[in-house]
Amino acid sequence: MAHALPVVGSDAAPRSGWWTRLVHRTAAPRPDVPEPTAAPPEGPVAVEPAPAAPEVMRPRRTWASLLARCRAVTKADCVFAVEGEGLVVGRDGAYGRVEVDRIAAHLSRAFDTLSFLTEIGRDVESLCVQYDGGRWLTAIRIQPTASQTVTVGIVGPWTIVREDRQRLRDAFLKLFADGLPDAAEGAA
């Protein structure tokens, strides 16, 4: 049995759906729109290459801008970065240079001490410590290359969950792909 398509305008024609959309798309040509007259060229068509876009040089990020962004995202009181040798290379927030240097020294020792607990894991990636009064110190150790280590310390009213610590680590690794910012730029 053959199926006949409904006639447009009859009671049997659907009033909406695919049939209505099909009918409206295949309507008679409009007189105000000219039809194309030129036939496509035959054979290969020579296409001129587009001019090369000028290479955009991204400004080199500074420790101050990186840590300010990290502080804003984590809503922390203070964020700082420590290079592998223990030198604070940048800080942003309510804590002064002396306080950050002191925290960084103890933080480096904590990572070094816990690295001997190989029964738990091979490398210490992060630390989360809660102090009385509801303050948290969260530290993330990042290795952009085999010879470089950066520890990012975050002091605030709460800790950072594992997934967010991983996101921060991944974001910093992407930012460090072009190299680390200079130490003198963020240690003010």
Description:
Helix content is 28%, strand content 20%. The chain contains 4 helices and 5 strands; from the N terminus they run H-H-E-E-H-E-E-E-H. Strands 2-1-5-4-3 form a 5-stranded antiparallel sheet, with helices on both faces. A hairpin with a 2-residue loop joins strand 4 (135-145) and strand 5 (148-156). The longest helix is centred in the middle third of the chain and has 18 residues, at 97-114. The chain is elongated and about 80 Å long. The termini are far apart. Residues 18-26 have low confidence and may be disordered.
Annotation keywords:
single chain; about 190 residues; alpha+beta; Beta-Lactamase; 5-stranded antiparallel β-sheet; 4 helices; elongated
Mean pLDDT: 77
Question: What is the global morphology?
Answer: elongated
Evaluate the radius of gyration.
31 Å
| Quaternary organisation | single chain
Structural class, please? alpha+beta
Instruction: Say what the CATH topology of the domain at 63-178 is.
Output: Beta-Lactamase
Distance between the termini: 86 Å
Quick one: how many beta strands? Answer: 5
Give the strand content.
Answer: 15-25%
Which architecture of the domain at 63-178 does the CATH hierarchy give at level 2?
2-Layer Sandwich
- The CATH homologous superfamily of the domain at 63-178 is called Dynein light chain 2a, cytoplasmic
The CATH class of the domain at 63-178 turns out to be Alpha Beta
Residue runs with pLDDT of under 50 for 5 or more positions: 18-26
